[in-house]
Specification:
Layout: H1 3-15, H2 26-57, H3 64-77, H4 80-87, H5 94-113, H6 122-146, H7 152-158, H8 162-187, H9 204-243
Helix pairs in contact: 2-3, 2-6, 3-5, 4-5, 6-7, 6-8, 8-9
Length: 244
């Protein structure tokens, strides 16, 4: 290829404007706004339910029973987020979103629902409270972002409250799984023993232990990812305020 041709080629490439990332279409945006508004309202219902039950009883013990049904419904509704990523209307990782959503759905149904003895544990209230505050902020953040009217307070809360809420939620989750272990081991819940016609065995007790161990490498990655995101999103604003 001659130098003239190379120069023409480079000029042609330089004239091409960089492609912008396409957001969801109008219909998809409308759907996502409705979805996030409904989810925000759902978690607000859970928050109000917790406060009303506490004021009525004068104690935080056993508050799970007052919000059990809406918690199961709206936490299970988060499974749609995996579908949103899979079809491309939300530009997030299917794997990461799937892990985060499934871990909460697993704890809701396969631990707290299945082992009724742990439902009165304080650790359940710990993760439920953390989830509730986190999700109200998160779904509000998504809603206003889609509408292109994101208040700074919600953005700040989204990238600040997690500093306390993430460790709080993880602590409650781990303590709840730990509290369930004796009952799972005693009853053989969800376990499959040999011999059977499929020549397959599964020990749910050991599986729960592995789930707890998995938090060791995974939680720090997610937590410090959010720390980096906080610096990226809020860093410039905070620097500007310091200058003023």
């Amino acid at each position: 290829m001659s130098a003239a041709t190379q120069g023409t080629s480079k000029a042609a490439h330089s004239d091409v404007a960089p492609k912008k990332k396409k957001g969801p279409g109008a219909l998809a945006t409308a759907y996502l706004v409705i979805y996030n508004v409904v989810m925000t309202a759902g978690w607000l219902v859970i928050a109000v339910g917790l406060v009303r039950a506490y004021l009525a009883r004068g104690s935080y013990h056993g508050l799970y029973y007052s919000i059990e049904k809406p918690l199961k419904f709206f936490q299970t509704g988060a499974l749609l987020e995996i579908l949103h990523c899979a079809v491309g209307i939300v530009p997030s990782s299917v794997v990461l979103t799937g892990f985060q959503v499934m871990s909460r759905v697993f704890l809701t149904w396969a631990v707290t629902h299945s082992v009724r003895e742990v439902q009165s544990e304080d650790s359940v209230l710990l993760f439920v409270t953390a989830w509730t505050v986190t999700e109200i902020i998160r779904y509000s953040f998504y809603t206003f972002s889609l509408l292109n009217h994101l208040p700074y307070l919600i953005k700040w809360a989204r990238y600040t409250f997690f500093i306390v809420l993430y460790p709080m939620g993880v602590s409650g989750e781990l303590l709840t799984i730990y509290a369930a272990l004796p009952y799972v081991q005693k009853t053989g819940l969800y376990s499959v023993t040999l011999p059977n016609k499929y020549n397959f065995s599964f020990d749910y007790y050991s599986f729960l232990i592995l789930v707890m161990i998995s938090y060791i490498p995974l939680f720090p990655q997610l937590y410090f990812h959010m720390i980096r995101q906080r610096k990226k999103v809020l860093g410039h604003t905070e620097d500007y305020s310091k200058v003023e």
